[in-house]
Model the fold of this input.
Amino acid sequence: MFEKPPFSKDQEDKIVTAIKAAEKNTSGEIKIHIEQHCKADAYTKAVEIFEKLKMTATEQRNGVLIFVAMKDKKLAIIGDKGINEKVPENFWQQTKNLMIGHFKEGRIADGIVEGIDDAGLQLQKYFPYQKNDENELSDDISYGENQ
Done:
């Protein structure tokens, strides 16, 4: 586990608030997962976390995971099957680039918030909000082990 929380309470609140705001405009589900280390390839680890968090359980298979390994400076964004069937290859590259710009300045929480905002805008095009939409995944940040 983390020696100390990676985010202040205020930063954590801003991240969760960004998730809730982004999901008001899309039926897509956004999840943030934070770990200290990632010895494997970030994408491979993100796929493992995606399954562990049961993100494939959404009705439209439109969950998105933003995975960040803080100390190893690794990032991956993956979408579920429903998203991947509709979007072009490298769909998340713009979102990653926005986040990395903040990360390079040491503003991890700001980068995550901007990534969430951009992911929400991208999802809105393919998965607009629907009246009967339910929040299928927790908006809380998920934290992993010290791996």
Observations:
- The chain is about 40% helix and 15% strand.
- Helices lie at 9-23, 42-52, 81-84, 93-104, 108-126.
- The domain at 9-129+137-143 is CATH 3.10.310.50 (Diaminopimelate Epimerase; Chain A, domain 1).
